[in-house]
Structure prediction request, 500 residues.
Amino acid sequence: MGNSLVRKWGRNLSAYGYFTVAAYNRMHQDICSFVSKTFYGGKVAPSVNERTETRVLRAKRSLTFIDTSTLTPRAAKPVGTYSRYNLLHSGIILGLVREIAHQFSLTNPSEKIGIVSRYAAQTKLIQALINAEFDGHVRSAATVHRFQGNEKHTMIVDLTDSEPAGRGQYVKDTENFEEGARLINVAVSRAQENLVLVADIRHLQKTEEFTIVKRLLAHFRRYGQELDIERLLGLDTLPPSWEEIAASSDSSLQKYDIVEATLFPRLFRKELREAKDIIVVASPIITRKGLKRWLPELEAAVERGVAVQVLTRSPEAQGDTRSAEAKQAITNLRRAGVQVDCRSSLDEALAFTDGEIVWEGTHNILSHKQRDLGRMSRLVSASACRQVADFMSPPSQDGRTEEFRIPENPKCPRCSRHTVLQSGQYGVYFTCEDPRCDGKIDSSQVRRGRGLPRDEKQETSGKQTLVCTQCGGLMILKKGRYGRFYGCSNYPRCKHTRNA
Prediction:
């Protein structure tokens, strides 16, 4: 519909009766009223036929919503994309699906429940959680485009947007013929009896324009019922005391918990000490005091044979006042045997242990002050760990792996120093950490999970490394119009080639 009459004449078509429908037989009147008033000039009426209504989650109304503002959700973009995912919203939606499936005795949630988001990354994450929960590949979550022509008894609409990723274009649209408005129309009108909205309302209302999303939120506040997040997630019984946690094998915790700030350091330290395989900490900022708190635990893990990886912003990206401190902290981590991979931009504040547990919250684990912990959520899900790790990994021609791993940055092809992952207009690439070196390598030349150029097979085959005679860079095997050849990894700065 990008170039259709809707785009050209959209605001006037309803006045001429082009969109007038006598009645919506499949939609509850509270849902229909928003669609009719917002998109069709009030000309669409709900069916007057008698309906059998079944409310979900013991609600009294067809419209229900969850405002996640009080929990300060965080949305991030997968590396090299403009999509978004929100781990907190995904955990909440998993709780919603679990409760609704229990209410209707569903072994396959997709029989009655549909989940829709604007972003493909978010639907992948939600779907991974649902598949793991219900032991099968049930297609419940999809983007708005994939749900056109489909409808469900209960629809969950996830407005994924939160800081620090910001608001997407679809939540900024103000006219009913714009693309974002049409997506909202499709998402809302898929529901037959119940419509559940999950949104960071405070974030979405931070705009002066009266957007379509603002109208949707106002409609829900007037005609809908707010659901209790604490009861939904079982948080009314949390947090357990530290004595309960220390004396148990996490039996006092659930698969998804939002942990009180004062309990997080002790619980996370306990999990670090019990880790057997891998630990990954993503902390955009690293400070001397923050690292001092956790470095002994990370060192002890390395000594036990646990692979420890830290993702952080490059020292220059952490601010002028923090640059020297961050550089020293990174050096200390590497001396302790920790793999540190720097990025020019990093929004996620996460931690993984053994590819089974993921922590996500509002602060940087390696920089926070004890009194400024904020909210930390804990999700036990190997599927979620793999999916989020995939989001945080550079794009690769080799595709996803089933094991949990975030690939290491490759070494600089010119000086063999560490590199920094960069995102540019034309994709993801790596540059040398040393600003005096102009070494560069494209992410497509890196084999996933190994941090090595895709065609650098000398280490396994015993062949000698090919070095560019013009600039000293690595010669990468490529395929061109006239067959295979070696090209310099510093292309386009260096255009030296040789026959394969």
